Design the sequence.
């Protein structure tokens, strides 16, 4: 019996610590929650979600600068903000699973076609215009859908070509997409899997839009015949490039700029036929628990104050190397401005063909 | 004990009454969430904004007409089988090697195997990648050219690393059998003039077969349902696997919950079959498991010299754990990965950054510690309660509970987690204020649900070794149930309870699927923080956080071993040496997912 008491005491001690620790964790990091331990605020949370009167702004996001933006917004407005940061896939999965009872106010990730499919399902607030809509440049406005269901915050290129200067002289560098089909790039070119990587699908959809579906598919089939390699995400493809496994990588340009800034010996080429736009996009939940705060947040992102926080690489890492679409905001000097032939991918069309194209790519190119 | 056999109606009702709390716990944690997901196979629109109960066979047809899904199923089956065979060979070797090892080496081997068992799959897989990839650690040490490891990033390579990862399951199942072999059969054979090979073929093998088959089936089930390897290695190798297809339907846009549900069902059925086979084999092997543990101790301490089996076991166990774990540790100390092993590239900077006070790294570690410790305490208590009832109250209701706990071992974490979203965010919960989704309670519940079935099996393993006569004697002397628990059950199974606690605790520290789908906004636990570092290409920081998490787990594990040691010292008495303690922990541990010896009902 004494033994048991001894053991039971050790467990109680551990359990006690656990409650204290979990209490601390909750309290310090979520100013929005009632500040009590994890156990006690359940009822209040569930009450909150059902009564539609939320006291905080909940942002589901896959952007590098999301947490910093949450903090900046909280500082600017005093509205408590929590950010759930994940990859685009899990973020969308979470949003779709909650479609009958959303717990988020704003959703934010790269790639308007995926956002368009959330819009098509009726999950987003439509026909609302932010106060500072006029802050958008022409390119910015061009990327806002006609039903105003989501708003771009900045633009990167879904794809740019990069080569490692150690392995390929500038004279031999590719200038167009079709250069990649040349024998000299046999088994030496890689891109991301569009089913996984956010920016890769706009590249595929963009090629179909620019070349037409038959020629677009032909391009990828020929590239595969020429030994094109498919990697999962930007990071993996980049590693393949810098380790010399491939000579040319085709990935989102902000990731390339970031790698270059960190010292990777790479050069970036924007294909002359057209560089596909990849806006980051924000949508508001149709039944957002805190609609007023959500609207304010979108306006904050489109404001100069918000943009200044967003474009700082200290806040957003690679994602901060975007091309601004708000008047008066200067891009990071590491970004090339001139000589880019931007090509806007139609998100409505891209969303419509998304399942079919991704499946085609998966069955015929990836595997 | 005899209640289930009597046909009396009132007793039968009482049977259901006692099992009601267990049923309720399982319903809340497992049955309701699972049903919420699986119902979408037939009613794909049940959780839409406007709920619709219109049935449709589209999801099933869609899943089975997809070439990739079928390829993934086929791959998972044969890769799982091949990995189980590799695990069988390696696990048998390590079991023999360990049982014949000198005492100190035995402890080392024991630790290596247990750490391999505890280590999260995706961390092991990630470690192998860091080591084997082009320009990775192996390439840097030995100056290997690009493409040297292409053979590794292929199906055979996957089979080998998965075999190494699952060898603990075979090892633990075999340890029991090897240690219980006893030398009397061997001696009897020899005295009758049998040769070594004959003894091995006619005596040793038949005695070991049930344990081996049980180990192989659980290794297959684990490999078949594994997500860590699928997530880390499959994408690079383009080998479609079933768990990855489930992940893809849930995590990659466009999301398809119905497809995830159908594939989950396929996974569930096959894994349940494997686990059922394993239990069937265990039950058939009764003549092995009847032997008692004291003989095991006597035998294992009899041999003290190093032989080739022990050496081989050490090499295998070390490769399986130290290469991936070491690679992760090394990567966490490189300033930049591409500069690699160069002297100027080593730093503790990433640790300093991860441990910055008030920073996200520290907060996530503390959060996961909080979750894992509280959930481990709750799991331990519930598991003991249900295991006790399962062993001693054999009513039809408890048989049902037993079936559920066994079947749920087959449910992959990601499937259960997806079920949790639907189940605990459903419209019908709004009026009764029970929308738990988005709260830490919901995540905690998912953590408990994920580990409870294992914990219950573990406890049953220990409880089934208690003699029922003890309870009957106590009860006939007028002791009430709670007193029987206090005085007899607790002291005898306390070491297993501690094992349960740490199994749960470790599992939760690095649990990825439920964490990523269910964590409350703004409060990411450790695995999410690690994944987010890897996502933003901060491999070194991700690895540093992983190592920090592992240090916490190891520290707690060490504490656990110490508690077990102290408890056993007091319970069993000082005459038992630590060899007994090691073999007993293994005895308890071998029923992780392995059906308890003799719990057959």
Sequence:
């Amino acid at each position: 019996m004494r033994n048991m008491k001894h053991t039971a005491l050790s467990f109680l001690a551990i359990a006690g610590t656990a409650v204290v620790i979990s209490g601390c964790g909750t309290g310090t990091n979520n100013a929005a929650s009632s500040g009590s331990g994890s156990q006690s605020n359940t009822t209040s949370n569930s009450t909150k979600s059902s009564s539609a009167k939320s006291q905080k702004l909940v942002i589901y996001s896959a952007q590098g600068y999301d947490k910093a933006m949450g903090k900046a917004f909280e500082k600017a407005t005093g509205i408590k903000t929590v950010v759930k940061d994940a990859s685009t896939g899990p973020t969308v999965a979470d949003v779709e699973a909650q479609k009958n009872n959303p717990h988020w106010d704003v959703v934010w990730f790269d790639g308007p076609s995926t956002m368009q499919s959330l819009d098509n399902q009726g999950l987003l607030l439509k026909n609302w215009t932010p106060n500072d809509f006029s802050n958008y440049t022409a390119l910015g406005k061009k990327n806002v859908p006609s039903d105003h269901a989501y708003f771009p915050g900045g633009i990167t290129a879904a794809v740019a070509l990069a080569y490692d200067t150690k392995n390929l002289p500038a004279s031999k560098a590719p200038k167009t997409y079709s250069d990649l089909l040349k024998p000299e790039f046999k088994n030496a070119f890689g891109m991301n899997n569009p089913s996984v990587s956010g920016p890769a699908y706009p590249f595929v959809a963009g090629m179909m839009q620019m070349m037409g579906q038959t020629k677009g598919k032909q391009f990828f089939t020929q590239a595969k015949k020429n030994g094109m390699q498919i990697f999962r995400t930007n990071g993996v493809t980049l590693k393949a490039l810098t380790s010399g496994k491939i000579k040319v990588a085709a990935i989102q340009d902000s990731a390339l700029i970031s790698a270059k800034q960190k010292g990777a010996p790479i050069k970036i080429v924007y294909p002359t036929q057209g560089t596909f736009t990849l806006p980051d996009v924000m949508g508001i939940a149709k039944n957002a628990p805190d609609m007023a705060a959500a609207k304010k947040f979108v306006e904050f992102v489109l404001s100069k104050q918000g943009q200044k926080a967003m474009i700082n690489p200290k806040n957003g890492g690679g994602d901060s190397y975007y091309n601004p679409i708000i008047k008066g905001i200067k891009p990071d000097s590491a970004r090339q401005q001139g000589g880019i032939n931007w090509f806007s991918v139609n998100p409505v069309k891209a969303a419509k063909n998304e399942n079919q194209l991704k499946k085609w790519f998966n069955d015929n190119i990836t595997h | 004990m005899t209640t289930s056999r009597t046909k009396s109606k009132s007793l039968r009702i009482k049977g259901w009454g006692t099992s009601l709390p267990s049923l309720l716990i399982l319903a809340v944690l497992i049955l309701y969430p699972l049903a919420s997901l699986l119902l979408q196979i037939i009613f794909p629109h049940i959780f839409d904004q406007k709920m619709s109960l219109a049935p449709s066979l589209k999801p099933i047809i869609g899943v089975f007409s997809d070439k990739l899904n079928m390829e993934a199923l086929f791959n998972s089956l044969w890769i799982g089988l091949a990995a189980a065979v590799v695990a069988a060979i390696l696990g048998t070797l390590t079991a023999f090697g360990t049982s014949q090892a000198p005492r100190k080496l035995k402890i080392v081997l024991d630790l290596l195997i247990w750490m391999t068992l505890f280590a999260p799959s995706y961390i092991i897989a990630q470690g192998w990648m860091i080591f084997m990839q082009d320009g990775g650690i192996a390439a840097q040490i030995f100056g290997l050219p690009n493409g040297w490891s292409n053979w590794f990033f292929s199906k055979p390579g996957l089979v080998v690393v998965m075999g190494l990862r699952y060898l603990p399951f075979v090892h633990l199942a075999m340890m029991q059998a090897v240690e219980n072999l006893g030398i009397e059969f061997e001696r009897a054979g020899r005295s009758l003039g049998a040769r070594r090979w004959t003894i091995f073929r006619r005596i040793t093998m038949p005695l070991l077969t049930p344990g081996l088959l049980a180990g192989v089936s659980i290794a297959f089930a684990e490999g078949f349902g594994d997500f860590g390897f699928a997530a880390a290695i499959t994408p690079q190798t383009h080998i479609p696997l079933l768990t990855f297809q489930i992940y893809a339907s849930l995590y990659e846009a466009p999301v398809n919950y119905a497809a995830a549900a159908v594939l989950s069902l396929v996974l569930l059925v096959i894994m349940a079959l494997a686990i059922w086979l394993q239990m069937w084999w265990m039950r058939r092997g009764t003549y092995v498991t009847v032997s008692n543990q004291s003989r095991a101790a006597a035998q294992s301490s009899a041999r003290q010299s190093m032989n080739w089996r022990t050496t081989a076991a050490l090499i295998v166990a070390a490769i399986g754990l130290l290469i991936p774990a070491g690679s992760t540790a090394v990567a966490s100390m490189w300033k930049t990965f591409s500069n690699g092993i160069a002297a100027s590239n080593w730093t503790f900077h990433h640790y300093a950054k991860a441990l910055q006070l008030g920073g996200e790294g520290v907060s996530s570690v503390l959060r996961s510690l909080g979750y894992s410790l509280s959930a481990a305490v709750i799991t331990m208590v519930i598991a003991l309660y249900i295991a006790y009832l399962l062993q001693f109250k054999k009513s039809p209701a408890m048989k049902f509970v037993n079936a559920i706990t066994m079947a749920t071992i087959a449910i992959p974490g990601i499937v259960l987690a997806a079920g949790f979203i639907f189940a605990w965010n459903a419209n019908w919960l709004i009026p009764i204020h029970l929308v738990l989704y988005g709260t830490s309670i919901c995540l905690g519940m998912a953590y408990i649900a994920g580990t409870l079935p294992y914990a219950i099996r573990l406890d049953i393993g220990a409880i089934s070794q208690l003699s029922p006569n003890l309870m009957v004697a106590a009860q006939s002397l007028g002791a009430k149930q709670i007193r029987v628990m206090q005085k007899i059950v607790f002291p005898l199974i306390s070491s297993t309870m501690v094992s349960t606690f740490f199994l749960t605790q470790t599992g939760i520290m690095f649990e990825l699927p439920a964490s990523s789908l269910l964590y409350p906004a703004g409060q990411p636990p450790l695995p999410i923080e690690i994944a987010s570092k890897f996502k933003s290409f901060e491999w070194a920081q991700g690895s540093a956080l992983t190592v920090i998490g592992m240090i916490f787990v190891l520290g707690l594990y060490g504490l656990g071993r110490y508690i077990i040691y102290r408890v056993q010292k007091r319970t069993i008495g000082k005459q038992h040496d630590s060899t007994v303690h090691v073999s007993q922990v293994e005895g308890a541990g071998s029923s992780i997912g392995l059906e308890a010896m003799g719990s057959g009902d």
